[in-house]
Amino acid sequence: MLVLIILVVILALCFDFTNGFHDTANAIATSVSTRALSPRVAVVLAGGMNLIGALTFTGVAKTIGGSIANPLKVQHGTIVVLAAIVAAIGWNLLTWRLGIPSSSSHALIGALSGAVIGAAGFHAINYSGFLSIIEALVISPIAALILGYIIMWIFRLLFGSRSLHRVNRPFRYLQMITAGVQAFMHGTNDAQKTMGIITFALIAGGFQSTMNIPFWVKLVCAVAMGCGTATGGWRIIKTVGSKIIRIEPINGFASDLTSSIIIFGFTLLKLPVSSTHVISSAIMGTGAAKRFNQVHWGVAGRIVVAWLITIPISGCIAAILVRLFLI
């Protein structure tokens, strides 16, 4: 059991690392594409702020670790977590290789749910907790789309009569701030998910009895995500930063502000969201407010399809893996 726990922790940190370069790329995509920050500075800033954010909150971790299933009631819980992490890492790497900004959050939640079902059956899922997580994942990008549209519409009213060059200059400086804020918010939510799944494994393995997140778990998860961020995620940055709309500093700032508000709001509610979904939806909302046909809806549709298939595919992969591991 101790060997299994060590393996789970190592693989969970590998997932956190892939989450760092996969999802955090979204947090700095707009500031890099508008040249508010150089790629090197943006990556270092995002890595540091991610680390701080990850150490600040634990509410989302407790939700992930205890709401999908009760780790004390799931047989072979450690193997369940092992299968879930392997499935989530595989999906992360595949979508990163293809440059698709799919959700690491969806991958992990889908994989954990699928692994629980594969090992213990559908009755082992805590459906009230699972549905509350799904609701947060569905509502948050819709809220980001609407709020992004509203914020950009207000900016158009305030600055529409001014020269675009004069307007963009101060917003380019403001983006230096919002890039760091957005990376911090990413850490407060996304890093918590790996903390939760490691704690799930610790409880299932009999190493602790409560969902209190040990400090060492918080620390290693925060460092892993920060290191992942420092490696960059240029394929994802290219898709989010240039292929959805042509981003200028004013709508880049509006997008960053929108996604920061949405992510932090759900963090305070102790609910996980997909930073990928939120940031991409915020960009779509601000682009639609500026000029509806400016949004590359074909690329946006491809992103939405990736969102829809991530949970079922990662769940099926994890269910198959857990059955193989239990043979």
TrEMBL record:
Subcellular location: Membrane
Transmembrane segments: 43-64, 76-94, 106-125, 137-159, 304-326
Organism: Alicyclobacillus fastidiosus
InterPro entries: Phos_transporter
Membrane topology: Multi-pass membrane protein
Phylogenetic classification of the source organism: Bacteria, Bacillati, Bacillota, Bacilli, Bacillales
Record keywords: Membrane, Transmembrane, Transmembrane helix, Transport
UniProt name for this protein: Inorganic phosphate transporter
Pfam families: PHO4
Presence of keyword Metal-binding: no
Recorded superkingdom: Bacteria
